[in-house]
Amino acid sequence: RTGAGLGFLRLVHHPAAFTRLKLDPVAGIDIDPMFEQVAGSEFPDIQAMTGDIFDLPEQSWDIVCCSHTIEHIPDAEQFVRQLMRIARHSIVLACPFAENPLGPDHCRSIDYEFFKSLGILDVKVYESQHWHSGLVCLAFKAV
After folding, report:
1. What secondary structure does DSSP assign to 43-89, as a single string?
2. Sign of dihedral through CA atoms 18, 19, 22, 28?
3. Number of Cβ within a 10 Å radius of residue 104
4. pLDDT at site 118
5. What is the DSSP letter of 96?
6. Is the pLDDT of residue 104 over 90?
7. CA 38, CA 16: separation in Å to the nearest integer?
8. pLDDT score at 103
9. pTM of the model
10. In angstroms, how far is the first alpha carbon of the chain from the final one?
11. Which residue has the higher pLDDT, 1 or 62?
């Protein structure tokens, strides 16, 4: 909701950076009506938009990154399928992994079975140094 993740992507993959992958422009969408104002004021070189991913056309984004959101969504499978539908090349998901007990406002625990059911097999699990210091994961899928 703050645009911090987008700001980080913009910094690391800026056209002038020494990385192979260049992201220009970096754009993000959030359902929170404050997103544009907050992200736009903190990170003026990203494109922050308010909206719903279910209103986006098919293959409208090159790479879709979703960080620490799916654990808050009651129908996370449908949400991730929509992310795959709007992505042209790939999706990247970050979330708590096999969370037990669930964190505040989290609807469900995300584990290997969740990803496998969606055809997402590239999942890296690691110990988080933030977000309550539990296990988190990064999941990748080319579409």
Report:
1. -TTSEEEE--GGGSPTT-EEEEEEES-GGG-TTHHHHHHHHHHHEEE
2. negative
3. 6
4. 98
5. E
6. no
7. 25
8. 87
9. 0.89
10. 26
11. 62
Residue burial 51-77, b: 16+ Cβ < 10 Å; e: rest: eebeebeeeebebbbbbebbbeeeebe
Amino acid making up residue 139: A
Identity of the residue numbered 138? L
Calpha distance 80→141 (Å, rounded): 11
Q: In the structure, what pLDDT confidence band is assigned to residue 24 with cuts at 50, 70 and 90?
A: confident
Contact criterion met (CB below 8 Å) for 140 and 90: yes
Annotate 123-141 with b (16+ C-beta within 10 A) or e (fewer). Answer: beeeeeeeeeeeebbbbeb
| Greatest extent of the chain over all pairs of C-alpha atoms, in Å | 43
